[in-house]
Design a protein that fits this description.
With 487 residues, the protein is α/β, with parallel strands linked by helices. It has helices at residues 2-7, 13-21, 29-39, 54-66, 86-99, 117-124, 134-142, 159-164, 168-177, 193-202, 217-220, 233-243, 256-268, 282-293, 304-307, 327-334, 355-365, 426-437; strands at 44-47, 77-82, 107-110, 127-132, 153-156, 183-188, 207-210, 221-227, 249-252, 273-276, 299-302, 317-320, 344-350, 373-374, 481-482. The protein folds into two domains: 2-210, 3-Layer(aba) Sandwich (Rossmann fold), CATH 3.40.50; 221-365, Rossmann fold. The strands form three sheets. A seven-stranded parallel sheet has the order 3-4-2-5-6-1-7, with helices on both faces. The longest helix has 14 residues, at 86-99. It is globular. 51% of the residues are buried. The structure holds adenosine monophosphate. The site of adenosine monophosphate has 15 residues, from helix 4.
C-alpha cells in the first residue's frame, strides 16, 4: 500500500523504501503534484509553506533524477539546493541523506558561521547534491572550491525568505555562474513582486503548483488571540505555561533583544528556556536546537529569521509573543505546529498597539481570529475589534512580474542563543511565581468550551458556552477564559 502510493508517482524503489522507513503512508498534496513533474524534467514554481511536505516533494525526485547520469569530478556539483538559513541547510541536507540512504550519491551542506576549510576539503571530491546558503556558496566559488559546469538542477527553497534576508545580489551572482540549460525548482510560501521577478528570471515554462495552507497547517491548527497589555505579556506567558502547557512550545518575538529578555524572564520564573537568534554563534544555535529536540528544555524563544525552516516534530503549541510585523511571517510561524496532519495550537498575545498587524494577519489568513481573555490579564488598553475579512481565501497565484522590486534587508538581524537553564521543578516554579503572575493554579475555570487545563473537566461551568453577549461581564471567580472582552 505504502510502496504503491509513492511508487505510483514514479519514484525509484530505493527512494520508496526510504520513505516507507520514515513511516510516510501517502504523498502529501504538494508531493502528489510536484514529484511526477520534476521526474519528467519540468521546472516547477511551488507556492507551499513549511509543513506541507515540500522538502520531500523536491528532494525525492531530485535524487531520483541524479541516479542516472555521470559521476561527479573534482569540485563538481550536479544539484544545488539554495536555502536562506544555516538551520534550514542542515535540515534539508538531513532530508537528502534520509531519502537517499539507499542510493549511492554524495551530498553535503555548506553554510557560514563555521570554518570554510573542511567544506573546501569535502568539496574536492565533488558532490552530487550541495545544500548551501548563498553567502558561503559564493565564498566557496570565489576560491574555486566548487564549479558549476556540470550542474543539472537548481532548487531555490523559501525564495521569499531569501529576498527578505537581502540575498538578492548573492542570488544574481550565483545564477550567473550556472549553466543556462538546467532544471529549476522554486519554492516560496508567498509570492510578493520580488519573488515573481526572480521566478521570471529563473524558471522556464514551469508547472505552477499552489498548496492551499488551509489544507496543511491552518486546518489542523487552532488559532486564537489573547488580548493583553503590552507590559503584562511576559507574566501572561508564564501564567499560560505554568497553568496549561506542560509540553514544549515555541515562542516568537520580533527582536533579538526581546528574545533574550523574555528568555531571562522565563528562566527567572523557573521555566527552562533558550533563545535562538542572530547574535550567537552557529555552534550555540545548533546546540540549543539539538537540546530542544531532545526535550532538554521546555521553551524555545526565537526570532523569525532563526526559526525559519526548523523542523521540530510534533510541537503542539506556538506562541506569538509579538505579532509579526510582516503578516506572511504569521503563516511561517504557525507552520511550526500542526505539522504533517498533527493537531496544533497557535496563540498570539496581542496588545492594543498591534491592531494594524492583527488586521493584516486576519486578512491574510482570511479569518477573524477568535479572542479569549485570561482572568487577571484583562487589558486596560482594549484591542479594537477587527473588521470583517474580505477577498480570496487562497494564497496569490504566482503571476508575471510587473516591475522589479528591491528586496528589503532583515530588520532584526539574525539568530543567537542564550544558554538553556536546566529544567526545574514545575511546582517550585509555580510557587515562586504565583504572586507575580497573579494567577492561581487551583479552582479557576472558563466559560468557554475551548477550555484548557486539568480542572476543566471537573467543573460543569467549564463546558458552558459564553452567554455574556457583546458586553459580557468579567468572568467570575471560577472563570479563567472569557470569550469576549469585559465591558
Ligand atoms: P516540510 O514541509 O518539508 O518541512 O515537511 C514537514 C514534515 O512532514 C516533515 O517532518 C516531514 O518529515 C513530514 N512529511 C513529509 N512528507 C510526508 C508524508 N508523505 N507523510 C507524512 N509525513 C511527511
Amino acid at each position: 500500500m505504502t510502496d504503491q502510493a509513492f511508487a505510483a508517482l514514479g519514484l525509484a524503489p530505493e527512494i520508496v523504501l526510504a520513505l516507507s522507513e520514515q513511516g510516510y503512508r501517502v504523498p502529501t498534496p504538494v508531493q502528489q503534484q510536484a514529484v511526477p513533474a520534476i521526474l519528467a524534467g519540468r521546472d516547477v514554481l511551488v507556492a507551499a509553506q513549511t509543513g506541507t511536505g515540500k522538502t520531500a516533494g523536491f528532494v525525492c525526485p531530485l535524487l531520483d533524477r541524479l541516479t542516472a547520469g555521470p559521476a561527479v569530478g573534482i569540485n563538481q556539483v550536479r544539484a544545488l539546493i539554495l536555502v536562506p538559513t544555516r538551520e534550514l541547510a542542515v535540515q534539508v541536507h538531513m532530508a537528502v541523506r534520509t531519502y537517499g540512504q539507499h542510493l549511492n550519491l554524495r551530498s553535503m551542506a555548506a553554510f557560514g558561521g563555521v570554518k570554510i576549510n573542511p567544506q573546501m576539503m569535502q568539496l574536492r571530491r565533488g558532490v552530487d547534491v550541495l545544500v548551501a546558503t548563498p553567502g558561503r556558496l559564493l565564498d566557496l566559488a570565489a576560491q574555486n572550491a566548487v564549479t558549476f559546469g556540470l550542474l543539472e538542477m537548481l532548487v531555490l527553497d523559501e525564495a521569499d525568505r531569501m529576498l527578505d534576508l537581502g540575498f538578492s545580489r548573492e542570488l544574481d551572482a550565483i545564477v550567473r555562474q550556472l549553466p543556462r540549460r538546467r532544471q529549476t525548482l522554486m519554492f516560496s510560501a508567498t509570492f510578493p513582486a520580488g519573488v515573481r521577478q526572480l521566478a521570471s528570471l529563473l524558471v522556464h515554462n514551469p508547472l505552477e503548483i499552489i498548496v492551499d495552507p488551509e489544507q496543511t497547517t491552518a486546518a489542523n491548527v487552532k488559532q486564537w488571540i489573547c488580548p493583553v497589555d503590552k507590559k503584562r505579556k511576559p507574566a501572561l506567558l508564564v501564567h499560560l505555561i505554568l497553568e496549561y502547557y506542560a509540553t514544549q512550545l515555541m515562542v516568537f518575538t520580533n527582536t533579538k533583544q526581546g528574545a533574550d529578555q523574555l528568555t531571562r524572564f522565563l528562566q527567572a520564573a523557573g521555566i527552562s528556556a533558550a533563545a535562538i537568534h542572530g547574535d550567537r554563534s552557529q555552534g550555540q544555535r545548533m546546540e540549543a536546537l539539538r537540546l530542544f529536540k531532545q526535550q532538554g528544555f521546555q521553551v524555545l524563544v526565537a526570532t523569525d529569521v532563526a526559526a525559519r525552516g526548523l523542523d521540530i516534530e510534533q510541537l503542539p503549541q506556538v506562541v506569538n509573543f509579538d505579532l509579526p510585523k510582516v503578516a506572511e511571517n504569521y503563516i511561517h510561524r504557525i507552520g511550526r505546529t500542526g505539522r504533517a496532519g498533527a493537531a496544533g495550537e497557535a496563540i498570539s498575545l496581542v496588545s492594543a498597539d498591534e491592531i494594524d498587524a492583527l488586521k493584516a494577519i486576519e486578512q491574510l489568513v482570511q479569518q477573524v481570529l477568535p479572542r479569549e481573555y485570561v482572568e487577571d490579564f484583562f487589558p486596560d488598553h482594549q484591542v479594537p475589534a477587527s473588521p470583517p475579512v474580505f477577498g480570496p481565501a487562497r494564497p496569490k497565484k504566482p503571476k508575471k512580474p510587473k516591475k522589479p522590486q528591491e528586496p528589503y534587508q532583515a530588520a532584526t538581524g539574525t539568530p543567537a542563543a542564550t544558554g538553556a537553564a536546566p529544567a526545574r521543578g514545575r511546582q517550585a516554579a509555580a510557587g515562586r511565581y504565583k504572586g507575580k503572575v497573579e494567577g492561581k493554579a487551583a479552582g479557576k475555570h472558563t466559560d468557554k468550551d475551548t477550555v484548557k487545563g486539568k480542572d476543566a473537566a471537573k467543573d460543569p461551568a467549564a463546558k458552558r458556552p459564553n452567554k455574556g453577549g457583546p458586553k459580557a461581564r468579567r468572568p467570575g471567580k471560577n472563570a479563567r477564559h472569557a470569550a469576549r472582552p469585559p465591558s
